[in-house]
């Protein structure tokens, strides 16, 4: 039987469902994340909140730092490349990364083209704000989607907006008649076949996580109740008062997102959440990157 | 024939869809209170075993599930589920229920680039599709464990009494024969 890489890569995302993927910058943080129950870690030199604070061009992390994190944990290790920077992706593939995040958190390398992800053996996750962006990334070979949210802010509003919009558009596509799909595909600038999948299955053809601005167990449960299949937590953990306790609580919140009693219990005594920035105060809008 | 599916993390939905195709009743186990209902079999799905061990403990599911397994409830572990049942795992002391006489090797084929799909013989069911995702394999068996499948010289499926494990993911394919095998284990156990 011929091995279909894309099927295997989609399957790894399926194994991550119901889990929390945490941003980490050191092997020590990676171990804290793993011990707290993270289903994967995202290795990066600076978490989004610090990227915002530092300004300047933000790039792929040092492969040596990523390798140190790979050696520290047994869970999958992901890392970010700039939008369109296929050589950064080649480098991450060379060190056998488990998942590449072609991410708007870093400075885009190409303002027109995303990476042709079908040329790679390793899987890619990409951000999306709406169904059109999600299906275009999938056409390019992404085997997992996440909302963009607005990373590094601790403000959940954009992630909610993106998840609601994607779910809303999926429901609308599901309700169209088959002959209306051609026009819908044209309007969304997506392939007819992918749209037909959404029409028939009422879901994306790949796993869909929430990301960007998740800072509390309640935020994580909110995203799950809105239809996320798991969450990425970036700055929310290691920018908070007690990272280990907060990480554990968010992991439990994702498992039991429908149980307010349990959510109340695990939300106690977590120390300070990250301070965060409100939507109106943001200078750099990352979600605008990559359409 | 209600089957409980551990639904704390991972690919539990795929097992639900397989059982739906087989018209077998099932329910999700997310908390200890979910165990207050009749259960004739237990599925431990694929996902991240370290995440599951942590959550089993935090959600107070570990002890009740362990006593169900040791009292002879039929259990089927895929991938991470195999690691949860193994008595030994090479190179780590992070262990789960430790009820099945196997020594497992985690991430045995390396990182995601080592993930693969193939076809292989499974017990007397003939050739079935097998999907391995950052999979473990079984280094060695002891006790009463029987080998059910071997791929590339490594043991990838085994059974000890009422415990069935596969390193691969039958729930990711359209071939339901391994699930049927497990359901017949549950049915025989109910009769005896």
Summarize this structure as a short list of keywords or feature phrases.
heterodimer, A: 291 residues, alpha/beta, 8 strands, globular, B: 192 residues, Rossmann fold, seven-stranded mixed beta sheet, three-stranded mixed beta sheet, 5 helices
Describe the structure.
Chain A is an alpha/beta fold and 291 residues long. Chain A has helices at 5-16, 27-36, 48-54, 63-72, 86-94, 131-139, 157-175, 181-188, 192-201, 217-225, 235-238, 243-255, 260-266, and strands at residues 20-24, 40-43, 77-82, 99-103, 124-128, 144-147, 207-209, 231-233. Helices cover 44% and strands 12% of the residues of chain A. The longest helix of chain A is centred in the middle third of the chain and has 19 residues, at 157-175. In chain B, the strands form three sheets. In chain B, strands 2-1-3-4-12-11-10 form a seven-stranded mixed sheet. Chain B has a three-stranded mixed sheet with strand order 5-6-9. A two-stranded antiparallel ribbon of chain B has the order 7-8. Helices cover 26% and strands 31% of the residues of chain B. The longest helix of chain B is centred in the last third of the chain and has 15 residues, at 177-191. Chain B is globular. Chain B has 192 residues and is of the alpha/beta class.
